[in-house]
Structures are given as structure tokens and as C-alpha cells.
Amino acid sequence: FKKFCYNPCVYKEFYSDRVLTFEDDIRSSLDVIYEIPMPKLTPNGYRVTVAKFRNADNLNILTLSRFLTIYLDYRIHKDTIVAGEVLILDMERMKPHHNAKLFNATYLELVKLYALNGPLMVKNIFAINCHPVLEKGIALIQSVLPQEIAERVMILSNPKDLYLHIAPECLPSDYGGLEQSIDSFQDVLAPFWMSQKGLIEDLDGCKPIGPIPAEFESYEN
Length: 221
What we know:
This protein has about 220 residues and is of the alpha/beta class. The protein is built from ten helices and five strands. It has helices at about 1-10, 10-15, 20-30, 60-80, 100, 105-115, 130-145, 145-150, 180-195, 195-205; strands spanning about 35, 45-55, 85-90, 120-130, 155. It has a five-stranded mixed β-sheet with strand order 1-2-3-4-5. Helix 3 crosses helix 4 and helix 4 (about 60-80) runs parallel beside helix 6. The radius of gyration is 17 Å and the shape is globular. The protein starts with a helix and ends in a 16-residue tail after the last helix. The model has no long low-confidence stretch (mean pLDDT about 90).
């Protein structure tokens, strides 16, 4: 509940007017990125999510940030109870000239929301297919996180090393796993996300307004 109160007050640019821009944010973001939660949990109860950039040339980081708050709100209110999150960040289609477009101040704020104040405990973040120039951006992400969380962010030089950390039944076929491809998931999820506007209207209708309560002012975990 504290996170529900805290985040819209602190990260106002990510939460403001989400209902007004809902359809455009979903449509634009799904053109730019795959954000695919795997159906099966790991043996320890973690949800694996694959985030893979599709068309980084069209990236608008604020639009993407609003979409990801919608994604996180759905996960905390509608998903089954999970132990936490394992994120695969696939940067195969990110090129060196995209570095400044992605790894900027707005994105770092989004990273802090996700890792420190998101609804899910972050178990690991695995960056794969990462160009050496973009590895500097991953290091920048680590620099804004507490050490114990930064140590959970790893760059895997070989995507096959995912098998050392994640069971095949929790990976899409794109990485040799037993689940369907991320394109197949995206075809299903695109209309699904469009159908969630009512949930966001309800949540935004009851979010707190005004100053942050004193007991929440330093809330991060």
C-alpha cells in the first residue's frame, strides 16, 4: 500500500494523465519493446519477464515509462502471488547510437522505480546481446542502485548462459526454451493490454493527491 501511495507522488511524470494517453502509450510502446511475462514460474516462485527492444529508433522514454507503470500496476493487482521478478533485458536491436536515447535521466528514474519501489522484488536482471558501448549504460544503471541490488544486474556475453540461471520451461523458444516465441506472446498481449484501461481508470481514480505523508517520504526498499 505504501508503494501505491508513494510512487504516483514521487514519479509524477510517469503517472500523470495515463488514462488520457492510454491507447497511444500502449500502441507506441508495443511497437518499441516486447514486455513478455512468462506463464510458468521458476521452481522458487519467480516470474521471468523478457524485455526486448524491437524498434529503438521510435523510442520515447516517457511514453515507455507510462506503459511500464501500467504493466507493474497490473502485475501487483492481478497477477498470481510471486516471490519476485527475474528480468531478461535483450538488447540485440539496440545500437551504439541508441545509448543516449535510452540511458538518460528519465530512464534512470524508471530503473529506480522498478528496482527500489516497484511492486515486485527484483531477483536478477540479465542483460544479453549487449553491444560493448551499451555495456556502459548497464554500468550506469548499476551506479544508481544500492550495492545489493546492483550486484543482481549481470551482463551475459552468451545468451545460452541463461540456462545456468533459468529453467528452459520458463524461457521462450527464441532462447531455446520450451515456451512459445515472444512474437506469439506479443500477438496475444497487444489486445490484452488495450483491454486494461478500466483497471487504470480505477487505480488513477483512487490514487493519493497532495503532499506525500511524512511516514512515506523516505520509502524505498
